[in-house]
Write a structure and sequence with these properties.
By secondary structure, this protein is of the alpha+beta class. The chain is 37% helix and 20% strand. It has a 3-stranded antiparallel beta sheet, with helices on one face. The longest helix is centred in the last third of the chain and has 14 residues.
Length: 71
């Protein structure tokens, strides 16, 4: 199909991001209660479900902004 709908989001961290991917995943879980998986190398995988709200997505974005400051 031309358009694929999925509930998975993959994020690849740039080499310039100081925090290690494993540390980022652990910090998101331990300090923010956000479960994101380490997919491969510097790529993270987030999976949404029907109970994940826009507020949950905003929480993740705010946590990432806090943990990964702009270069």
């Amino acid at each position: 199909p031309a358009v694929v709908q999925t509930n998975m989001v993959f994020v690849t961290l740039a080499a310039t991001v100081a925090i290690a991917p494993r540390e980022l995943v652990a910090t998101l879980r331990e300090h923010y209660g956000i479960r994101v998986g380490l997919y491969h190398g510097r790529t993270l995988r987030a999976v949404t479900h029907y109970w994940i709200t826009d507020d949950h997505v905003d929480q993740l974005l705010q946590a990432l902004k806090h943990l990964i400051p702009p270069a």
